Amino acid sequence: MVIDKETYKLSDKNYHKHEYTKKQIVIGHTGRKEMHHYGSWVNRHNGQYKKTAAYTIDKDGKVYEHYDPKYYSDYIPLHDMGPFTIPITLTNVGWIQKDNVNDRYYDWLGHNYILEDDDIVTERWRNKEHWVKYTDEQIISLKKLTDKLCDDFKIKNDCIGNTVFNDDVDIYEGITFKSNYYQEVTDISPAFDMDVFKTTV
Hints:
11 strands, globular
């Protein structure tokens, strides 16, 4: 697969340049449209923000490597799991609020969208109801990337298979989701088609 390692490369001030044996891939989403999260990463904390991901997959399925995944970030600081995980984030705004009067949707930053019904999943979860779908291109690229990383880093190629909070997620070996670690976060959202991800070749 083609991985762009230059366009959105991070400075080594945005991750920890130390190597540890990896046992998990953790998937989340950006909560921002396009690649706006990258600008937030490089500009926060005087350019030393480290809660970053090794990869972003955009809506077209293009994969960007931000740092060599043999290193680590503070993406999942809980249980001191950062060194043992490879984080991947999908470009997706996440939950959106419906404005029935104007027939528009608003994200958490106040950006508004006119969306078709087939772009949205409506399901009550973690006190939110409407979610922007992840694209088929993203899911296909994600599967290819996780297969490659599992092979390269000898990570068990199993998926936890749900987005439910799990007290024991830190001992799981394989592919997990950010929402398995935190009860309050909303990524990966119900718009993620778990069955398609697990069966994509």
